[in-house]
Amino acid sequence: MELTPHTPLTQLPGIGEARGKKLEKLGLRQAGDLLRYYPRDYEDRRQVWTIRDAPLETKVCVRAMAAQAPALSRIRGGLELVRVRAVDHSGSLWITFFNQSYVQRAIQPGEDYIFYGTVEQMGSRRSMTNPIFERADRQAVTGSIIPVYPLTAGISNHLMLTLARQTVPLCARQVRETLPAKLRREYQLAGAEYACQTVHFPPSFEELETARKRLCFEELFYLSLGLSLLRGRRQDCRGIPLPPAPLEEFTKLLPFAPTGAQRRVMEEISRDLSQNRPMNRLVQGDVGSGKTAVAAFAAWRAVRGGGQAALMAPTEVLAEQHAKSLQALLGPAGVRVGLFLGSASAKQKREARQALAAGEIHLAVGTHALLSQGVDFQNLALVIADEQHRFGVAQRSALAEKAQTPPHVLVMSATPIPRTLALIVYGDLDVSIIDQLPPGRTPVQTYIIGEDKRARMYNFVKKLVGEGRQVYLVCPAVEEEQNLKSVKAYAQQLQREVFPQLRVDLLHGKMRPREKEGVMAAFAAGETHILVSTTVIEVGVDVPNAALMVVENAERFGLSQLHQLRGRVGRGGHASFCVLVTASRNPDSLARLKTLAATTDGFKIAEEDLKLRGPGDFFGSRQHGLPQLKVADFSGDLRVLRQAQDAARAMLEEDRDLSRPEHAPLLEQVRELFSETPGIFN
Ligand code: ADP
Ligand code: MG
User: Fold this and answer.
1) Ligand 2: centre distance to CA 273 (Å)
2) Pairing label, strands 91-98, 125-129
């Protein structure tokens, strides 16, 4: 059989129906799919040691001769043990295999083998347990750098390695070079064939670096191109210009004077809205910087200009909070606000939909329920997405599609993105930054404590509640049943044993929306003293009387996430505190937490997070709706990112929509990268 990139994997030896299904789960169907199925790690099995010189506590290759026939024994529970002694000129190595009785026949006395495993030492006796082994004259899985692939149940790394060896060299030879030669020269990038082959089978780690650089560059280059094209396309698009309106007419409605930063951003938005090209703007502002007022301004402008506006929030709790405060703020200006929640009754939904379609509701506030079929606007002019990191590009555009003419789009985010990444993550948006907090805020004081200070922390909680304040206590995300049980038990324990005089309540993501709402309402009304919660309260919730945020297992959270949590307190002019509880002794974790304690500047924190954890977090979770990047992990390599951005910019200056025939392959690559992001390039 002749192997081609299109050969189904099930036609390869050893791959039956069942294995084929499992491989499919990993996205592997044809021989060619393996090429871009990159290793997640590598094991250096090049160096071969003698028994005496082999280092301990790390996996190594040792060459030794089987000194005797392996001996099989059975111990309790039917466990099978195979023992064999191996020797070289420097000493003996005692090797044990558990439940691998075939080894008894596979190892021949007098034959030389390479054993790959961890050498342990007891007294002067050296041993190895369950090593990988092969004959020294037939090295296949030792003697080189071995790729370690992401796996799934029933698919071993050995199988992946075998498959990659059969397919990668052939498919790499046929891979098309899509990066222009000029670019490769300018940025010193390896060729496509070399990079694809080497990333699987690197002769050295230096060569691996060269290969990875090329692959990272390629991916980021196409991503940058795609995002810039989106931006360009938007500039060609016609929208609904809204008539100008004096800013003062709006600020009169506010119970406070806007900060300079809020005013500046409102003016930026104001200018966008008057254009006949739709606005596409991101407002970034640290927690508590007052983004709601800015959103309210945009909505007011849209409605005043005769259009409707929609505001989409990530949770029902937030949507309700927004609806209430926007109705209070804009009601006096004649704006009618409607609420759209998935949990509403059929009757409520029907009524709200009718009012919206008839133009009686001017501003629709809701969750993704706003995207549902049957939610129709009479004249949608503006879409606002709050806390955008929970929404993707696709959801934003799904809402925009409910308008006849492309509406203006405003995205609000409290997750500061490091400047270095902003262009990538928000490549298709213009960015405004609210870089000033309303006056009278006292910065939140942050402390890191270990278990030994827990009792003191509980006393501090009592003291603050005694002064009339309220407290959040956050535990790491609840996904598994097990974990949820322990959070519930913890809340109960706090209520019964630690704070019997106070009211402790629990909020978690598995609760029904109505339940959550009840819990939040009781907390907002000051009836609950301590709210034990998972991270569902992370975004947006505003209870000014809350003055202490306690985070349990703080080391499990990302810095930016902790910063968000901390932003829930310090909103009411009371002295406010954030206590990070951790039992971790890991110096990296502690360093991260210290960064948070040292600054309240969200941008600095984001930069630090980026430095410490790499950009993976910003891309990895798909939270931005960007295409998933495949290059295993390009952490730290911001230089490549910048180069790729520069190259994309230069390319588009030359050919702004990649319409020249010689750029057709580039456009095709961009399409492919974005192929799973619906409605963008197809
Ligand atoms: P975020 O940017 O986190 O969404 P909010 O819009 O919820 O912040 O505002 C946080 C709090 O600050 C709210 O209670 C809001 O009323 C108040 N606020 C916003 N702007 C100002 C201002 N210019 N002066 C005083 N208080 C303000
Ligand atoms: Mg907000």
Assistant:
1) 21
2) parallel
659-676 burial code (b ≥16 CB/10 A, e <16)? eeeebeebbebbeebbee
Q: How far apart are CA 60 and CA 115, in angstroms?
A: 8
**Cα 365 to ligand 2 centre (Å):** 13
Ligand 1 pocket check for 491: Cβ under 6 Å: no
Tokens read off for 580: 């990070």
**Calpha distance 652→21 (Å, rounded):** 42
Confidence of residue 230 (pLDDT cuts 50, 70, 90): confident
Q: Is 321 in the pocket of ligand 1 (CB under 6 A)?
A: no
Tokens (6 digits) for 75? 């111990």
Task: Kindly provide the residue ranges of all beta strands, DSSP E only, lying in 559-602, ordered along the sequence.
Answer: 577-581
Determine the 3-state secondary structure of 110 from DSSP: coil
* Strand order through the sheet with 504-507: 445-449, 577-581, 546-551, 470-474, 530-533, 504-507
Best mutation site among 292, 315, 444 for ligand 1, i.e. most ligand atoms within 8 A of its Cβ?
292
- Of residues 48 and 316, which shows the higher confidence score? 48
CA–CA distance from 437 to each of 326, 385, 506, 549, 595 (Å)? 20, 21, 30, 19, 20
Residue 629: band (very low, low, confident or very high) from pLDDT cuts 50, 70, 90: low
Identify the sign of the CA torsion 674, 678, 680, 681: positive
Question: Would you say 39 and 147 are in contact if contact means Cβ atoms under 8 Å apart?
Answer: yes
Task: Provide the whole-model pTM.
Answer: 0.64
What separation, in Å, do the N-terminal and C-terminal C-alpha atoms of the chain show?
37
State both tokens at 673: 């990268």
Give phi and psi for 241, each to the nearest 5: -70, 135
Helix (H, G, I), strand (E, B) or coil at 474: strand
